[in-house]
Please model this.
Amino acid sequence: MKFLRSVCGVALLGFGGGAQGTCAETPVASFLRSDAIRSVTVSPDGEKLAYLLVDEAGDGTLAIYDYRTGQTSGVGSKRDDVYSYRWLSDELLFFSNAGTNAHYSFYTLGKGRPKAVMAEDARFQVLQFRPDDPSLAYCYYFPKSNADGVRSGLALVDVTKSNVRVSGREIKQRNVKYWVELPPGRFLAAKFDHKGMLRLVWMGDEAGGMQLYHHWNDESVWAPVSLPWERAVVLSFDGSGNSIWLAAGDASLPTGGLFAYDLTTGTLSEMLYSDPDYNLDGAEVIFDDETEELLGLTYRRAGVETIPLSPSFAKMIDAVKAAMPGWLIAVEALDDAEKRIVLSASIDRFPTTYLVYDLKTQSIQGLPPTRPWVEGPPISQASLVRWSARDGLPLQGLLTLPVERKPETAWPLVVLPHDGPRARSLVAYDPEVQLFVSRGYAVFQPNYRGSTGFSWAVSDADKDAYRKMSEDIAEGVKYLTKTGVIDPKRVAIMGSYFGGFLAVAAVAWEPELYACAVTQAGVFDWEKLAKDYAREDRLDSRDVLTRAFGDVEADPEPYRAMSPIRDLARVRAPVFVAPSLSGFLAANDQTPELVEALKKTTDLIESRRSKRSALAWDRGRTPGVTTKRF
Model:
């Protein structure tokens, strides 16, 4: 969606759509709008429901429904665009306000306007509040803060005081309660227990390595932790705080499983759960705080869903599934009082729906629709596609075809690689996909190697093999064209960020396969990016590349081998290039270099900077389109 909003005036002229789909007359802007409702939660006592209402301009207002009074109140305005929020207690919320004057705010229910407490600043990040005192939060101050005399590191901060500043020489600043002494190395990440206490940190070394440490409280000594798996992802602490839930596995356990690791004894439990098709990285563990009973897991399978692991939880999930057959049901939020559970229901043919399950009455309450402007007959449904990579690796992706009749020949295809590499295309309603199929294009969303959630061989063994990822997509396209459903002469590829890299790589490394490419904010020269990171002291980003490809100064060849900018002489298809307008790559936008390099090898190129939030796919009716016909 972010990609579509920043690329305007693009039309696949001459590439052409097939028969018009069910939503052919739906305006483009209707597809590009944000969901009207998101971030649905329930207060700790279960008596209030909160969710963000997003208007057509994208500004957020927080709506709070009180079950005791039946009244709904709103918080936010054009000046206080609420971007995200979290409950700190039954009556207190913490906001992140977007806009030009981004800031953090506290809001006490029924106490007037939110109180702005400090400006958001790229130099620090709020990590975790202390439940015993919501005015205190662990904040991390990034190393670049030293450039202006501000100390870097992890600190417990009183966030109720405005204009957070930290003294670089003496810890006398009123906002900082104390600095947390960290183990040797550079801070990478932290994990907190259910009481909000800092318990785990990951520290990096100069060689790009990473070590996990644990301590019991901020006064105790850090101790290194060695987990007994090649791949082990810490999901959360258990209720006691003595053990952590792990999603772990290796080549001997391809999709891994769920384990409990006891921090007091260093012992690992037997495997508690495993999925034969998907791994559990990033899963949310749902358990009873008092009994420690494992209730369920929410993770990404074909789509996001919750798998019940206890009879009581299964009864609730089954009741919702019976009411919404075919939908994937996932737990979004629970209250501490065990009164209400917020659920999401997702399917590829309809926008996501939010529900509230009342544990006492065992009834289901539906929330207003997330995209009320979507109406009419059911829209296109995705099907699972399986193919083999050049080395035999089994892969899968999603293919969505227009609803209307098939064209006389075959469907033109738009390939939409996700903007990973550590990501995945899921079965869910996707406005971007529905826009294309409504205009008569088939859409292919390939989950190439490195995509998350699959077996060890798919998701981990070659997670940094960027060139193989491009080949994986090409083999998927070839498989589809052999079925006769897709026109081999009308295949386009488009993407942003890593997907933008893959789009350019596709027309450079497989020039006969694609009819055109659209790219935004991709990395086209990995050697340059790695050297830019080192020069700008972006150490965390540099270390990610170093761990994957080695020291760029000592041996740049691995970086050059996966840089399509070195192979642009092979490009035969038209390329539309859009720059990065925001995001983490904006400071290292390689669009100018790509455009200049393409100009030397082809005249089939268009580059345009635009902040208009629309993409016109109505063929031949878009003003100002200069994209070549092909």
